[in-house]
Each structure stands twice: as structure tokens, then as C-alpha cells.
Specification:
six-stranded mixed beta sheet, mainly beta
Length: 819
């Protein structure tokens, strides 16, 4: 490695937020979470309540419903209007479900729209004012009130905000269509609703609270909820204790019931955001390791009038809040009342998460939903967390294994010796070993008083970090810290790869994370600094996640010349080469990614060292083929796309193939961006082991790329072939086995790097490899490989992926002549 330079701080930009969505891998742009202007005005009705759990397991009501409210001073005729529904993650071909409206909604009153029925439930809605057949998600989705009945065409928050026919929009759970930020997700027994004044600030998360469904029609008729109204003020301990409510499985045996007189001491208060409330814990307990001794009291957007150390008696309705489909539920009290008996009490001792506390085994190999299984907290990590739900835990002198993200969260490990990487992360090397010592840390502290640390991998939270256990759809179980350890920086620095020698051809791959032509110049400058200062000016670069000239605006634009020209200019201005580029624009909304972004792969190349061998005719739908040319093996089109009409590439990026000539050698390069992992069941979800449903498409994609490689190498076994990019799968996955099987292609990351260096992406605290550079046998013995560690381990990253560089030594060619 080169000598370590002084540390350079990359400019912060929107990409800092993206690693926390992800997403889902895979995921999704943080720009979708930016606040938007209010879509409703003072002279229109609004959506006042949304419920999608009708007829589901545990539900009282048989039907889903949407309720409208009229905050204006006059009755409003709804004839010709509609209620429309989009799922949480709509694609370009997603069908919009439309329910036409009729009649009018009186001033200050409601309008009830009954939707589809489930197979369960015991209670009908009040007589609806309109009916439809929309089957809404119980946990996440978007409902739109539209002045018209034509299905909306928008699929993102930004594009829906620009649609003048949309009067109001409510996104809940992890819906990408919303106003401001989405309301909390719901469950089979909960809805999201506005207050009685139909308050509308333009921010769903602020305006809507989760609670028991209260469908109300235009006549003011409603239904009595299963809880039987508000609980009485608790004045003495009841028959139940918290551990009774929590039970020995993941859900409460009292879900949906009212409980009264639960004693405990307040251990933490969440005074910020729309998910406010407090945690309280029984100081005695039952000694059963399966039963948690703590609960969360949910108060919505109201800050509870309690303080840490208060002894309380609590009453309320027991509910199971599920942040999104497939997630674990959170047992909590809603519609709660409490009595404060005394103040300043000692807190229960926090459970120490030392190296032996959390079991090594992740979860039971059940083959399905583990919700109703009896917990085994001494055997499985996921059961350990469920059995300590809401209880106060602590870590001491915790090593940071994933940098602070854009939502003020980081990951530490309780096992300093478990699968550690060279830079201090935790290496993910097997589906069977997900590193159960990983712990996510968020903060309950006032950011103005105690800012969250901007930590990198290898830093430490020295001393004690403690707080209650909670659960999020992003990362699963976590600690909401009431005490944060001191941030002690490590020695992580960005280090440049070595220079390319004159006899070498350097090839790099870089996922630049949704870079579009309308993005801020700071985004381009930050990426350009990485190229100029750390990547060693590679001769050939395969880019992933290049968006069109209008970025995420869904306006029919597919060209990306502005995007690529701006990147090239920024690299040159930063002191790098003046690159040229090649790409093929996709068909509009056919290649996946953020709707309207028209994501694609592209090539950069340094014309002072490399010639691009153009072969005309390449377009979005024409497949590249291996043909015999005047010099031997050629490509039918260059650049070209591999089998672009094959179903394997539906709503997914097509591989880009290019023919390059450098140092009198022909090099064929395929840059890829395979199907993302965002649709897989989460490692922390209810189904164990989680199903990796997205890999089916990746296997088909890998097969097509392998077939192209086989065709090229059959025509010329000594051809120089590089297959690279964001393959969205691990070195031990079937996807990589398809590409490398029978030795057709080899993986230098596996062959040349030690295991503790074999990663280029950090997700949920696991340092893993999603990006790869593969070569054929003719190159395998004469390549050098490096990961440019400039992003994934740093809090100020400009992409969530680290680029990689492969260098080909032309002095050791296994074939004389043109290769």
C-alpha cells in the first residue's frame, strides 16, 4: 500500500442518507424523504384516516377503509373525485387502484369509503358513503385523494407533488409516496388518523398518529373499538405485571385487550418526533429469561408528562405495532393513562451486553414465521432481543463497525474478536454466520445538547452506552441510547491505490449512487475528488447508477449526456484525466431504479491510453453478439447490451459491453448492475431463515452474462475478458458461482486478498462484498487488485460503495500478438 496521506474529508451530500434506506439495498434514494409542500389547501377535504388491516388476523373490523374529513367552512361535492391507492414501492407498471366518489361531505364532517374485506374480523363498518374493492396493505402504502377519476401516473413523492389533480396524499409505513415524511406503519389492529380538527401541515408523520381504527361516516356513526373506550385512571396495582403482558413469545397474549395497574419505573422518554412515549420497567420481575420486564407507552405526537425515575402505574390497550410487512412486532400500550406515585427512584440495572451475552446462533431454522414460537433467549440472538424488548441494556467501550449514517445511527459490536476486518469492521463471510454481536445505536438525547457522534469504522464509544431495546424496520432490534459513550476516533484514513505502471492497463468499477444531470455540483465534485486523489486515474471505468439528465424527475428524458459530461468535467477539474464516455440510454422507465431516473451503466475511458473500438448499431433493445471480424473476434455492436429483451432484465439494469484497445491489447469489458436485494426478507424479520427472493432474478442475469462470456471465450480462448460491477451478491453466493463455475471466470478479490479485506460495502454493521471484478483464465495470473476504501466505512461518504481497481500486467501475456 502507498504511504498514508493526510486525511481528506469528502464534502457531505445527499448520498450520506442513502445507506440507511436501503435500504434496503438496497436501496432507495434519501431524496424521497425530503419535506414537500402541502398538497391540500384550506378549501378542500383531506384524508383523515387510513386502515388496511380489515379482516386480517386479530382484526375486529372486516373491511379496509379510507375516511375523508372536511375542515372547510362549506360542504364539498365529491362527484367526479376519487380515492386512489398505491403500494409502498410502486414500479412503473404498478396498477393504481381507483375508487370513484359520489355525494358530498359536510363541513366539519366525515366521508367513509369502505374498501376490500378480509376473511376475518367480527364487526362491519358503519354504513359507508362510498364503496370500493381496493385491498390495502396493513403496514405500508399510499392513499391519494384526487379531483378526477383517471389513475395517477406519478410513482414518487416528488412527482405526485407536481400533479395538480392530487388534493391530498397520505403515505404510511415505508411508502415512497407521501407528503413530508410518511406516517408510522400500521398493523392489523391499527390505523393512522388525523386529529379531530383535521390538522394538515403537509407532513404525514406529524399529522397522523397510529391508534385503534375509528371509522366514521357522513352521519357521524362509528363503531366501538375492542378496547371498550378509554381506560380508567390507575390507582392501585392490577392483577397483571409487565412480564405477563409480554409473555413468552414475540406477541402479547393480551394484544387488543385493556390492562390496568401495571407497575414500573420510567427508564427513558422519547420526546421527539411523532413516535413519542416512554419506557417503564418492572423492578422485580419473575425471573423467567423468556419474558421482558419492560413496555413502551406510545403517546403519538404528544410528549408524555413523566421523567426518568418516576414510579408509575399504567393502563392502556395492548397493541402489536409492526413497522412494515415481515418485520417483528413491538408490544406497546396505546390510549394509555398513568399515575405517578413517586419520583427520583433508582433505575433497574441495565443488562450488560458483553461478549457472551448474545448467542452465536441467529434464529431457529424454522422455515417460516417464528412469531408464535416460545422464545429461547439463551440459544438464539433474535430470541434474546425479543426477550429483552424495551428493557435497558448497555455496552461498554464498544468498537464502531458501521459509520454514522444520515439518520444519526451507527453500529457497534459486543465481540471485539468476532470476524474483524483489517479496518475494524465485521466481515460477513457466510449466510450461516451473520455476526450476532452487532448492535445498532440510536439516541434519545437532545441533539442540541448532546450531538450524535460522527463516527467512522474503527472508532470507539468509550465508557457506557445504554438505553432501552427497541425495533426499527431499518436494522431490526437496536438500543435507543439515554447515555452515549465518549466518541474516540480511530486511525481510519482514506488511502489511495497505487499508481498504474506504464505496462499495466487499469480497469475500475464504481457505483456512484444515483448520480443524475440535475444534481448539485457538490455531488459531482465529491465524486471527482475520489477519482483524482484515490483511484489512481484508471484507464477504463465501469459506472453503475448513472441517471438521466433530469435525475429523478419523471419527464420522459432518457439521455444522460449532461450527467456524464458534468462528471467528466469535474474529474478533470480535480486533476484527473479528461475522460471520454460511452453508454446506451434505456427505454423510459424500463431499467428499474428510482422511477424517472432511468438508471444505467456507462463507461469512462482515458483516450490518452485507451481506444474505444466503436461498432455502430447498439441501442436499448439490440443484443450484442460475438462475431468474427478482420482482426479476429469482434463485437457486433460496441457498446452493446446483453440480451436486453430477455425477461431476466425486466425492470433491471442491462449489462453494458465494450471493446477497448490499450497497449496493443484488446480488452472486452462487461459492466453490470444486477437486481437489487431490497425485496429479500430481512435478517431480523419474522420469517427464519429469511427468503432471498431477489436472487432468482440475479441467477437468470448471471446465466446470461456467463453465456456471453462462454461465447467470447469459445471464439477466442485467450481473449482478455473483464466482467465487473455491482452484482448485488456475495462472493459465496450462487450468483457468483454461476459466473465463476468451472473456472471460466475467477474472482481476484477472493484469490488475492485476505478474508479480512474482502468487502466493499457495509450494511447493518456487516462489511460485505456486493461489487466484484472477475477475469477469465487468460488474465487470472497477471492481475493486481485493490479496493479503494473511500466510502463505505466513513460517515461522510459520497457513495455507499467502495470502488475497486484491477490492473493487468501486459508484460506477462499468455498469448502473443493482439492480446
Amino acid at each position: 500500500m502507498s504511504p498514508t496521506p493526510s486525511r481528506t474529508t469528502f464534502p457531505a451530500c445527499r448520498r450520506t442518507l442513502a445507506s440507511a434506506a436501503a435500504l434496503a439495498a438496497a436501496a432507495l434514494g434519501a431524496s424521497l424523504l425530503a419535506p414537500l409542500p402541502a398538497l391540500a389547501s384550506a378549501d378542500t377535504p383531506v384524508i383523515s384516516e387510513v386502515y388496511g388491516g380489515g379482516g386480517n388476523s386479530g382484526a375486529q373490523l372486516r373491511h379496509d377503509f379510507v375516511e375523508l374529513g372536511n375542515p372547510t367552512a362549506a360542504d364539498v361535492d365529491l362527484t367526479g373525485w376519487s380515492v386512489q391507492y398505491l403500494p409502498a414501492r410502486p414500479g412503473p407498471n404498478t396498477r393504481v387502484q381507483v375508487t370513484p366518489l359520489s355525494g358530498s361531505v359536510a363541513t366539519g364532517e366525515h366521508h367513509l369509503v369502505r374498501q376490500a374485506a378480509g376473511t376475518g374480523g367480527t364487526t362491519d363498518l358503519p354504513t359507508p358513503d362510498d364503496t370500493g374493492n381496493t385491498n390495502m396493505s396493513a403496514s405500508a402504502g399510499a392513499v391519494l385523494l384526487v379531483e378526477g377519476t383517471a389513475p395517477v401516473e406519478c410513482r414518487t413523492a416528488a412527482t405526485c407533488a407536481e400533479d395538480g389533480s392530487i388534493v391530498d396524499v397520505v403515505g404510511y409505513g415505508d411508502a415512497v409516496v407521501h407528503a413530508g415524511s410518511p406516517a408510522r406503519g400500521t398493523g392489523n389492529t391499527t390505523s393512522v388518523s388525523r386529529d379531530g380538527a383535521f390538522t394538515h401541515s403537509g407532513n404525514n408523520s406529524a399529522d397522523f398518529t397510529v391508534g385503534e381504527p375509528t371509522p366514521t361516516n357522513g352521519a357521524g356513526e362509528t363503531v366501538e373499538g375492542p378496547g371498550g373506550g378509554e381506560p380508567e385512571e390507575p390507582v392501585e396495582p392490577g392483577e397483571l405485571r409487565i412480564h405477563d403482558v409480554q409473555g413468552t413469545t414475540r406477541t402479547s397474549p393480551y394484544a387488543g385487550d385493556q390492562v390496568i395497574g401495571l407497575p414500573g419505573v420510567v427508564t427513558a422518554v422519547n420526546a421527539f418526533g411523532s413516535g413519542r412515549g416512554f419506557w417503564f420497567q418492572d423492578t422485580e420481575g419473575d425471573g423467567d429469561p423468556r419474558t421482558s420486564e419492560a413496555l413502551f407507552v406510545f403517546t403519538g405526537s404528544t410528549t408524555p408528562d413523566v421523567a426518568v425515575g418516576d414510579e408509575v402505574l399504567a393502563a392502556g390497550q395492548v397493541s402489536e405495532y409492526r413497522p412494515q410487512t415481515g418485520a417483528q412486532t413491538i408490544t406497546q400500550l396505546e390510549k394509555a393513562r398513568w399515575t405517578t406515585l413517586s419520583r427520583g427512584n433508582d433505575l433497574p440495572e441495565a443488562v450488560l451486553l458483553d461478549a457472551d451475552a448474545i448467542p452465536q446462533d441467529h434464529a431457529p431454522d424454522h422455515g417460516g414465521d417464528v412469531t408464535e414460537l416460545e422464545l429461547e433467549p439463551d440459544k438464539y440472538a433474535l430470541d434474546f432481543w425479543a426477550a429483552h424488548e424495551h428493557m435497558t441494556v448497555r455496552v461498554e467501550d464498544a468498537p464502531v463497525i458501521a459509520a454514522t449514517d444520515g439518520y444519526d445511527a451507527l453500529w457497534v459490536t459486543t465481540r471485539p474478536d468476532e470476524n474483524r476486518t483489517r479496518n475494524g469492521g465485521v466481515h460477513y463471510g457466510s449466510y450461516d454466520d451473520p455476526n450476532t454481536g452487532r448492535v445498532k445505536i440510536e439516541s434519545l438525547l437532545d441533539r442540541d445538547v448532546r450531538p450524535f457522534p460522527e463516527a467512522n469504522v474503527g472508532d470507539t464509544l468509550a465508557g457506557v452506552t445504554e438505553g432501552p431495546v427497541y425495533y426499527s424496520r431499518f436494522g431490526g432490534y437496536l438500543v435507543r441510547a439515554t447515555t452515549l459513550g465518549e466518541h474516540v476516533p480511530g486511525d481510519l484514513e482514506r488511502v489511495p491505490v497505487r499508481d498504474t505502471a506504464r505496462h499495466e492497463i487499469s480497469v475500475a468499477t464504481y457505483n456512484v449512487e444515483n448520480l443524475g444531470g440535475a444534481d448539485d455540483q457538490a455531488d459531482f465534485d465529491a465524486l471527482a475528488e475520489g477519482f483524482a486523489a484515490y483511484l489512481g486515474a484508471p484507464d477504463i471505468v465501469g459506472l453503475e447508477e448513472i441517471q438521466d439528465n433530469s435525475s429523478e424527475t419523471d419527464d420522459g428524458v432518457v439521455a444522460a449526456d449532461v450527467t456524464l459530461d458534468r462528471l467528466v468535467d469535474a474529474i478533470a477539474a480535480a486533476g484527473g484525466p479528461t475522460y471520454e464516455w460511452r453508454e446506451i440510454s434505456p427505454e423510459d422507465k424500463k431499467d428499474g431504479g428510482v422511477p424517472g431516473g432511468n438508471i444505467r451503466n456507462a463507461f469512462l475511458f482515458n483516450p490518452t491510453r485507451v481506444q474505444f473500438v466503436d461498432a455502430e448499431g447498439g441501442d436499448a433493445t439490440t443484443p450484442v453478439e460475438v462475431v468474427e471480424g478482420e482482426r479476429g473476434v469482434e463485437l457486433s455492436v460496441s457498446p452493446g447490451r446483453i440480451a436486453p429483451r430477455d425477461e431476466a432484465w425486466n425492470s433491471s439494469r442491462k449489462p453494458l459491453v465494450g471493446h477497448f484497445r490499450a497497449l496493443n491489447r484488446d480488452v472486452y469489458v462487461v459492466t453490470n448492475h444486477f437486481n437489487a436485494k431490497g425485496g429479500d426478507e430481512s435478517l431480523h424479520g419474522v420469517n427464519q431463515p429469511p427468503s432471498r427472493v431477489t436472487e432468482t432474478q440475479r441467477h437468470k442475469q448471471a446465466t446470461l452474462v456467463r453465456e456471453f462470456a462462454d461465447d467470447l471465450l469459445a471464439a477466442d480462448p485467450e481473449a482478455n475478458l473483464v466482467v465487473m460491477g455491482d452484482l448485488n451478491d456475495f462472493q459465496f453466493s450462487t450468483t457468483l458461482d454461476i459466473l465463476t463455475g468451472d473456472g471460466a471466470l475467477t474472482n481476484p478479490m477472493v484469490d488475492l486478498l485476505d478474508e479480512d479485506e474482502g468487502y466493499n460495502y457495509v450494511f447493518d454493521g456487516n462489511s460485505q462484498a456486493l461489487d466484484h471484478i472477475l477475469v477469465n483464465g487468460a488474465l487470472a495470473g497477471r492481475v493486481d487488485y485493490e479496493v479503494a476504501r473511500i466510502n463505505s466505512e466513513f460517515h461522510d461518504q459520497v457513495s455507499d460503495h467502495d470502488p475497486q481497481v484491477l490492473r493487468i500486467d501486459t508484460r506477462r501475456s499468455t498469448s502473443p500478438g493482439r492480446h
